[in-house]
Amino acid sequence: MGPTPTLPTKARTTPKRKISEHEFTITLYQGLKRQIREMCKAVQLTVVRLVRTDFGPLNIGKLKPGEYRHLTSEELATLKKTVGIC
């Protein structure tokens, strides 16, 4: 079975807090299991760590792995509009 087609993806270097010359940001509009790792592997890059900063229209902020918070009413309205249940 060949590769699964996905929506376009954007990649750019991360100028904010430069940890190393190998840090960059990838924006997915449709994410498949292990997609980022497979994309990097295709261009001979090894993923050491992934950090999710947004989930759809929601910014994760300073949440650590395993933590959660309640959505604000504005976030809930935005999320409902995004998925078409508003």
Automatic annotation (TrEMBL):
<dbReference type="InterPro" id="IPR042092">
    <property type="entry name" value="PsdUridine_s_RsuA/RluB/E/F_cat"/>
</dbReference>
<dbReference type="GO" id="GO:0006396">
    <property type="term" value="P:RNA processing"/>
</dbReference>
<keyword id="KW-0413">Isomerase</keyword>
<dbReference type="GO" id="GO:0001522">
    <property type="term" value="P:pseudouridine synthesis"/>
</dbReference>
<dbReference type="InterPro" id="IPR020094">
    <property type="entry name" value="TruA/RsuA/RluB/E/F_N"/>
</dbReference>
<dbReference type="InterPro" id="IPR050343">
    <property type="entry name" value="RsuA_PseudoU_synthase"/>
</dbReference>
<protein>
    <recommendedName>
        <fullName>Pseudouridine synthase RsuA/RluA-like domain-containing protein</fullName>
    </recommendedName>
</protein>
<dbReference type="InterPro" id="IPR020103">
    <property type="entry name" value="PsdUridine_synth_cat_dom_sf"/>
</dbReference>
<dbReference type="GO" id="GO:0009982">
    <property type="term" value="F:pseudouridine synthase activity"/>
</dbReference>
<dbReference type="GO" id="GO:0140098">
    <property type="term" value="F:catalytic activity, acting on RNA"/>
</dbReference>
<dbReference type="GO" id="GO:0003723">
    <property type="term" value="F:RNA binding"/>
</dbReference>
